[in-house]
Amino acid sequence: MAPVPRRLFLPKQYMKKIEKFKMLIEQPGRVVITTHQKPDADALGSSLGLAGFLKKKGHEVCVITPTDYPNFLHWMSGDEDVVVYSAEKEKEIGQIVEKADLVFCLDFSSLDRINELGEMVRNTQGKKVLIDHHLQPEDFADFIKWDIKAAATAELIYDLIVQLGEGHLIDKDIAECLYAGIMTDTGNFKHPNTTENVFAVCGELVKLGADVSKVSRNIYDSNSVGRLRLLGHALSERLTVFPEYKTAFIALHQKDLQRFNAQTGDTEGFVNYALSITGVRLAALFSDSGDIIKISFRSTGDFSVNELARKYFNGGGHKNAAGGRSELPLEETINKFTNLLPECFEAMEQNKMSYAKDI
Ligand code: 5GP
Ligand code: MN
Questions:
Q1: Which of 21, 61, 289, 347 is the most exposed place for a label (fewest CB within 10 A)?
Q2: Residue whose CA is closest, atom 11 of ligand 1?
Protein backbone atom coordinates (compact mmCIF):
# COMPACT_ATOMS: atom_id res chain seq x y z
CA MET A 1 0.00 0.00 0.00
CA ALA A 2 1.27 3.47 -0.83
CA PRO A 3 2.49 5.50 2.17
CA VAL A 4 -0.20 7.79 3.53
CA PRO A 5 0.55 11.38 2.54
CA ARG A 6 1.53 13.31 5.64
CA ARG A 7 1.22 16.72 4.20
CA LEU A 8 -1.69 18.90 3.34
CA PHE A 9 -1.76 22.27 1.79
CA LEU A 10 -0.31 24.75 4.25
CA PRO A 11 -0.84 27.06 6.01
CA LYS A 12 -4.28 26.61 7.48
CA GLN A 13 -6.14 28.91 5.11
CA TYR A 14 -5.15 26.57 2.31
CA MET A 15 -6.41 23.42 4.00
CA LYS A 16 -9.80 23.70 2.38
CA LYS A 17 -8.28 24.43 -0.97
CA ILE A 18 -7.39 20.85 -1.76
CA GLU A 19 -10.90 20.32 -3.12
CA LYS A 20 -10.65 23.46 -5.25
CA PHE A 21 -7.27 22.33 -6.43
CA LYS A 22 -8.62 18.89 -7.32
CA MET A 23 -11.26 20.58 -9.49
CA LEU A 24 -8.59 22.52 -11.35
CA ILE A 25 -6.62 19.36 -11.97
CA GLU A 26 -9.71 17.55 -13.23
CA GLN A 27 -10.35 20.20 -15.83
CA PRO A 28 -7.86 19.88 -18.71
CA GLY A 29 -6.16 23.21 -19.29
CA ARG A 30 -2.92 24.94 -20.13
CA VAL A 31 -0.25 24.32 -17.53
CA VAL A 32 3.18 25.88 -17.10
CA ILE A 33 5.71 24.29 -14.77
CA THR A 34 8.79 26.22 -13.82
CA THR A 35 11.67 25.72 -11.44
CA HIS A 36 14.76 27.52 -10.18
CA GLN A 37 17.68 28.66 -12.32
CA LYS A 38 20.40 26.10 -13.00
CA PRO A 39 17.96 23.31 -12.17
CA ASP A 40 19.33 20.33 -10.29
CA ALA A 41 17.91 16.79 -10.30
CA ASP A 42 15.18 17.66 -7.80
CA ALA A 43 14.16 20.79 -9.67
CA LEU A 44 14.01 19.09 -13.05
CA GLY A 45 12.88 15.69 -11.78
CA SER A 46 9.94 17.12 -9.86
CA SER A 47 9.03 19.30 -12.86
CA LEU A 48 9.14 16.47 -15.40
CA GLY A 49 7.52 14.01 -12.98
CA LEU A 50 4.63 16.40 -12.43
CA ALA A 51 4.48 17.16 -16.16
CA GLY A 52 4.18 13.45 -16.95
CA PHE A 53 1.32 13.13 -14.51
CA LEU A 54 -0.53 16.23 -15.70
CA LYS A 55 -0.21 15.17 -19.34
CA LYS A 56 -1.93 11.93 -18.41
CA LYS A 57 -4.71 14.02 -16.89
CA GLY A 58 -5.19 15.64 -20.28
CA HIS A 59 -3.45 18.95 -19.68
CA GLU A 60 -1.33 20.78 -22.19
CA VAL A 61 1.90 21.10 -20.25
CA CYS A 62 4.94 23.28 -20.85
CA VAL A 63 8.00 22.99 -18.61
CA ILE A 64 10.05 26.19 -18.71
CA THR A 65 13.44 26.53 -17.03
CA PRO A 66 15.07 29.94 -16.44
CA THR A 67 18.47 28.60 -17.58
CA ASP A 68 20.11 25.50 -19.00
CA TYR A 69 20.91 22.52 -16.80
CA PRO A 70 23.55 19.80 -16.53
CA ASN A 71 23.97 17.14 -19.22
CA PHE A 72 23.51 14.40 -16.65
CA LEU A 73 19.82 15.35 -16.42
CA HIS A 74 18.92 15.08 -20.08
CA TRP A 75 17.92 11.42 -19.80
CA MET A 76 14.69 12.29 -18.01
CA SER A 77 11.47 11.59 -19.84
CA GLY A 78 9.98 14.79 -21.25
CA ASP A 79 13.37 16.53 -21.38
CA GLU A 80 13.06 17.01 -25.14
CA ASP A 81 10.07 19.32 -24.67
CA VAL A 82 11.57 21.57 -21.99
CA VAL A 83 11.72 25.21 -23.02
CA VAL A 84 14.87 26.90 -21.76
CA TYR A 85 14.53 30.66 -21.36
CA SER A 86 16.60 32.87 -23.63
CA ALA A 87 16.23 36.50 -24.65
CA GLU A 88 15.19 35.39 -28.17
CA LYS A 89 12.37 33.30 -26.73
CA GLU A 90 11.23 35.95 -24.26
CA LYS A 91 8.13 36.96 -26.22
CA GLU A 92 7.04 33.41 -26.97
CA ILE A 93 7.58 32.34 -23.34
CA GLY A 94 5.78 35.45 -22.10
CA GLN A 95 2.72 34.44 -24.11
CA ILE A 96 2.79 30.87 -22.85
CA VAL A 97 2.94 32.06 -19.23
CA GLU A 98 0.27 34.70 -19.82
CA LYS A 99 -2.15 32.20 -21.32
CA ALA A 100 -1.60 29.51 -18.67
CA ASP A 101 -4.51 28.45 -16.50
CA LEU A 102 -2.16 27.00 -13.91
CA VAL A 103 1.47 27.84 -13.17
CA PHE A 104 3.43 25.47 -10.96
CA CYS A 105 6.52 26.82 -9.22
CA LEU A 106 8.63 23.94 -8.02
CA ASP A 107 11.65 23.71 -5.74
CA PHE A 108 12.17 27.41 -5.12
CA SER A 109 10.73 29.80 -2.61
CA SER A 110 11.02 33.23 -4.17
CA LEU A 111 10.40 34.56 -7.65
CA ASP A 112 13.85 36.10 -7.91
CA ARG A 113 15.14 32.51 -8.26
CA ILE A 114 13.62 32.24 -11.73
CA ASN A 115 15.19 35.39 -13.19
CA GLU A 116 13.20 36.97 -16.04
CA LEU A 117 10.39 34.46 -15.60
CA GLY A 118 9.70 35.90 -12.15
CA GLU A 119 7.73 38.91 -13.33
CA MET A 120 5.90 36.89 -15.99
CA VAL A 121 4.72 34.46 -13.32
CA ARG A 122 3.85 37.23 -10.90
CA ASN A 123 1.68 38.97 -13.52
CA THR A 124 -0.11 36.00 -15.04
CA GLN A 125 -3.83 35.62 -14.46
CA GLY A 126 -3.39 31.86 -14.10
CA LYS A 127 -3.56 30.24 -10.67
CA LYS A 128 -0.16 29.85 -9.10
CA VAL A 129 0.87 26.77 -7.20
CA LEU A 130 4.03 26.72 -5.11
CA ILE A 131 5.42 23.32 -4.14
CA ASP A 132 8.66 23.55 -2.24
CA HIS A 133 10.80 22.55 0.71
CA HIS A 134 13.09 25.58 1.10
CA LEU A 135 13.02 27.96 4.03
CA GLN A 136 11.10 31.26 4.08
CA PRO A 137 8.78 31.06 1.04
CA GLU A 138 7.59 34.24 -0.62
CA ASP A 139 3.85 34.76 -0.47
CA PHE A 140 2.82 34.90 -4.14
CA ALA A 141 0.91 31.69 -4.81
CA ASP A 142 -2.79 30.77 -4.70
CA PHE A 143 -2.02 27.24 -3.56
CA ILE A 144 0.95 26.23 -1.48
CA LYS A 145 2.31 22.83 -0.66
CA TRP A 146 5.32 23.62 1.44
CA ASP A 147 7.16 21.47 3.92
CA ILE A 148 10.73 22.09 5.04
CA LYS A 149 10.80 18.60 6.48
CA ALA A 150 10.37 17.10 3.03
CA ALA A 151 13.73 15.89 1.74
CA ALA A 152 12.93 16.91 -1.81
CA THR A 153 10.27 18.66 -3.83
CA ALA A 154 9.96 15.33 -5.68
CA GLU A 155 8.79 13.78 -2.41
CA LEU A 156 6.07 16.45 -2.22
CA ILE A 157 5.04 15.78 -5.82
CA TYR A 158 4.67 12.10 -5.00
CA ASP A 159 2.59 13.03 -1.94
CA LEU A 160 0.44 15.36 -4.01
CA ILE A 161 -0.33 12.78 -6.68
CA VAL A 162 -1.23 10.21 -4.01
CA GLN A 163 -3.22 12.83 -2.12
CA LEU A 164 -5.22 13.44 -5.30
CA GLY A 165 -5.98 9.72 -5.39
CA GLU A 166 -4.02 9.30 -8.61
CA GLY A 167 -1.04 7.24 -7.49
CA HIS A 168 -1.89 4.65 -10.15
CA LEU A 169 -0.92 7.18 -12.85
CA ILE A 170 2.72 7.16 -11.76
CA ASP A 171 4.53 5.13 -14.39
CA LYS A 172 8.19 4.13 -14.73
CA ASP A 173 9.18 7.43 -16.38
CA ILE A 174 7.50 9.58 -13.75
CA ALA A 175 8.83 7.35 -10.97
CA GLU A 176 12.41 7.73 -12.23
CA CYS A 177 12.16 11.53 -12.39
CA LEU A 178 10.88 11.65 -8.81
CA TYR A 179 13.37 9.08 -7.57
CA ALA A 180 16.23 11.15 -9.05
CA GLY A 181 15.09 14.23 -7.12
CA ILE A 182 14.89 12.36 -3.82
CA MET A 183 18.15 10.51 -4.38
CA THR A 184 20.15 13.68 -5.01
CA ASP A 185 18.51 15.96 -2.43
CA THR A 186 19.24 13.40 0.28
CA GLY A 187 22.87 13.24 -0.90
CA ASN A 188 22.29 9.68 -2.09
CA PHE A 189 20.35 8.82 1.07
CA LYS A 190 22.87 10.02 3.60
CA HIS A 191 21.80 13.48 4.80
CA PRO A 192 19.69 13.87 7.97
CA ASN A 193 16.65 14.52 5.75
CA THR A 194 16.68 10.82 4.78
CA THR A 195 13.56 9.93 6.73
CA GLU A 196 11.43 6.84 6.96
CA ASN A 197 9.04 8.50 4.54
CA VAL A 198 11.85 8.92 2.03
CA PHE A 199 12.47 5.18 2.00
CA ALA A 200 8.74 4.44 1.93
CA VAL A 201 8.22 6.73 -1.08
CA CYS A 202 11.31 5.41 -2.85
CA GLY A 203 10.13 1.85 -2.19
CA GLU A 204 6.87 2.73 -3.92
CA LEU A 205 8.70 4.38 -6.80
CA VAL A 206 10.78 1.25 -7.30
CA LYS A 207 7.61 -0.82 -7.20
CA LEU A 208 6.20 1.48 -9.88
CA GLY A 209 9.17 0.73 -12.11
CA ALA A 210 12.00 3.12 -11.17
CA ASP A 211 15.33 1.58 -12.16
CA VAL A 212 17.55 2.62 -9.26
CA SER A 213 20.77 1.60 -10.91
CA LYS A 214 19.95 3.40 -14.16
CA VAL A 215 19.09 6.65 -12.38
CA SER A 216 22.19 6.46 -10.22
CA ARG A 217 24.49 5.76 -13.17
CA ASN A 218 22.95 8.52 -15.25
CA ILE A 219 23.50 11.05 -12.51
CA TYR A 220 26.62 10.02 -10.67
CA ASP A 221 28.57 8.07 -13.29
CA SER A 222 28.41 10.32 -16.29
CA ASN A 223 31.50 12.42 -15.71
CA SER A 224 33.40 13.99 -18.55
CA VAL A 225 37.17 13.72 -18.33
CA GLY A 226 37.28 17.52 -18.04
CA ARG A 227 35.04 17.46 -15.00
CA LEU A 228 37.18 14.89 -13.23
CA ARG A 229 40.32 16.86 -13.99
CA LEU A 230 38.65 20.04 -12.73
CA LEU A 231 37.81 18.20 -9.51
CA GLY A 232 41.40 17.02 -9.21
CA HIS A 233 42.62 20.59 -9.69
CA ALA A 234 40.07 21.94 -7.21
CA LEU A 235 41.20 19.49 -4.53
CA SER A 236 44.92 19.78 -5.09
CA GLU A 237 45.22 23.51 -5.82
CA ARG A 238 42.14 25.34 -4.67
CA LEU A 239 41.18 23.84 -1.33
CA THR A 240 41.83 25.86 1.81
CA VAL A 241 41.25 24.47 5.28
CA PHE A 242 40.89 26.40 8.52
CA PRO A 243 40.97 23.64 11.14
CA GLU A 244 40.70 26.27 13.88
CA TYR A 245 37.30 27.30 12.49
CA LYS A 246 36.24 23.80 11.39
CA THR A 247 35.86 25.26 7.93
CA ALA A 248 37.11 24.41 4.46
CA PHE A 249 36.47 26.02 1.11
CA ILE A 250 37.28 25.60 -2.55
CA ALA A 251 37.68 28.67 -4.74
CA LEU A 252 37.55 28.12 -8.48
CA HIS A 253 38.95 30.95 -10.56
CA GLN A 254 37.49 31.83 -13.91
CA LYS A 255 40.67 30.58 -15.56
CA ASP A 256 40.19 27.16 -13.90
CA LEU A 257 36.71 26.85 -15.33
CA GLN A 258 38.00 27.89 -18.74
CA ARG A 259 41.04 25.60 -18.63
CA PHE A 260 38.90 22.51 -17.99
CA ASN A 261 36.09 23.70 -20.24
CA ALA A 262 33.61 23.52 -17.35
CA GLN A 263 30.00 22.94 -18.35
CA THR A 264 26.81 23.63 -16.39
CA GLY A 265 26.68 21.23 -13.45
CA ASP A 266 30.37 20.31 -13.54
CA THR A 267 31.04 21.77 -10.11
CA GLU A 268 27.99 20.19 -8.49
CA GLY A 269 28.98 18.18 -5.44
CA PHE A 270 32.49 19.69 -5.18
CA VAL A 271 31.58 21.44 -1.95
CA ASN A 272 30.85 18.07 -0.35
CA TYR A 273 34.52 17.11 -0.63
CA ALA A 274 35.40 20.09 1.53
CA LEU A 275 32.71 19.09 4.01
CA SER A 276 33.98 15.52 4.07
CA ILE A 277 37.25 16.48 5.80
CA THR A 278 37.37 15.15 9.35
CA GLY A 279 36.31 17.84 11.79
CA VAL A 280 34.96 20.24 9.14
CA ARG A 281 31.47 21.51 9.87
CA LEU A 282 31.21 24.40 7.41
CA ALA A 283 32.21 24.21 3.76
CA ALA A 284 31.94 26.56 0.82
CA LEU A 285 32.57 26.52 -2.89
CA PHE A 286 33.25 29.80 -4.69
CA SER A 287 33.01 29.68 -8.42
CA ASP A 288 33.97 32.68 -10.53
CA SER A 289 31.83 32.72 -13.65
CA GLY A 290 33.42 35.99 -14.73
CA ASP A 291 30.15 37.77 -14.10
CA ILE A 292 29.30 36.95 -10.50
CA ILE A 293 30.75 34.61 -7.90
CA LYS A 294 28.37 31.71 -7.31
CA ILE A 295 28.63 30.28 -3.81
CA SER A 296 27.55 26.93 -2.40
CA PHE A 297 27.48 26.43 1.35
CA ARG A 298 27.17 23.19 3.30
CA SER A 299 27.17 22.53 7.03
CA THR A 300 26.60 19.74 9.46
CA GLY A 301 24.60 19.95 12.66
CA ASP A 302 22.78 23.04 13.82
CA PHE A 303 24.82 25.68 12.08
CA SER A 304 22.51 27.23 9.49
CA VAL A 305 24.12 28.09 6.19
CA ASN A 306 20.72 29.33 5.05
CA GLU A 307 21.11 32.16 7.51
CA LEU A 308 24.72 32.80 6.51
CA ALA A 309 23.81 32.89 2.81
CA ARG A 310 20.76 35.06 3.41
CA LYS A 311 22.47 37.55 5.67
CA TYR A 312 25.73 38.05 3.82
CA PHE A 313 25.59 36.55 0.34
CA ASN A 314 22.21 37.43 -1.11
CA GLY A 315 21.01 33.82 -1.10
CA GLY A 316 19.32 31.16 0.98
CA GLY A 317 18.26 27.53 0.86
CA HIS A 318 18.14 24.95 3.63
CA LYS A 319 19.76 24.81 7.05
CA ASN A 320 22.60 22.55 5.90
CA ALA A 321 22.70 23.34 2.17
CA ALA A 322 22.37 26.82 0.77
CA GLY A 323 23.64 29.00 -2.03
CA GLY A 324 24.38 32.62 -2.64
CA ARG A 325 26.23 35.05 -4.85
CA SER A 326 28.69 37.87 -4.64
CA GLU A 327 29.31 40.72 -7.00
CA LEU A 328 32.71 41.41 -5.46
CA PRO A 329 35.84 40.01 -7.13
CA LEU A 330 36.79 36.48 -6.03
CA GLU A 331 39.56 37.54 -3.63
CA GLU A 332 37.33 40.07 -1.90
CA THR A 333 34.51 37.55 -1.67
CA ILE A 334 36.86 35.08 -0.03
CA ASN A 335 38.09 37.78 2.36
CA LYS A 336 34.53 38.62 3.27
CA PHE A 337 33.88 34.96 4.01
CA THR A 338 37.05 34.39 6.01
CA ASN A 339 36.39 37.53 8.04
CA LEU A 340 33.07 35.99 9.04
CA LEU A 341 34.64 32.75 10.23
CA PRO A 342 35.26 33.73 13.87
CA GLU A 343 31.59 34.72 14.10
CA CYS A 344 30.45 31.50 12.41
CA PHE A 345 32.71 29.41 14.59
CA GLU A 346 31.39 31.00 17.74
CA ALA A 347 27.85 30.28 16.58
CA MET A 348 28.78 26.68 15.73
CA GLU A 349 30.34 26.13 19.12
CA GLN A 350 27.64 27.83 21.13
CA ASN A 351 24.72 26.69 19.01
CA LYS A 352 23.51 30.24 19.11
CA MET A 353 19.83 30.41 18.42
CA SER A 354 20.25 32.85 15.58
CA TYR A 355 22.20 30.24 13.66
CA ALA A 356 20.54 27.13 15.00
CA LYS A 357 16.92 27.88 14.29
CA ASP A 358 15.09 26.18 11.49
CA ILE A 359 13.48 29.18 9.87
P1 5GP B 1 23.62 24.58 -4.41
O2 5GP B 1 24.75 24.92 -3.49
O3 5GP B 1 23.56 23.11 -4.66
O4 5GP B 1 23.57 25.43 -5.62
O5 5GP B 1 22.29 24.94 -3.61
C6 5GP B 1 22.02 24.41 -2.34
C7 5GP B 1 20.58 24.73 -1.98
O8 5GP B 1 20.42 26.13 -1.82
C9 5GP B 1 19.57 24.29 -3.03
O10 5GP B 1 18.42 23.84 -2.37
C11 5GP B 1 19.29 25.55 -3.80
O12 5GP B 1 18.00 25.55 -4.33
C13 5GP B 1 19.48 26.63 -2.76
N14 5GP B 1 20.08 27.84 -3.36
C15 5GP B 1 21.18 27.89 -4.12
N16 5GP B 1 21.45 29.17 -4.49
C17 5GP B 1 20.50 29.94 -3.92
C18 5GP B 1 20.23 31.34 -3.95
O19 5GP B 1 20.95 32.16 -4.54
N20 5GP B 1 19.12 31.75 -3.26
C21 5GP B 1 18.32 30.89 -2.58
N22 5GP B 1 17.25 31.38 -1.93
N23 5GP B 1 18.54 29.58 -2.55
C24 5GP B 1 19.62 29.09 -3.21
MN1 MN C 1 15.02 20.40 -3.77
A1: 289
A2: 317
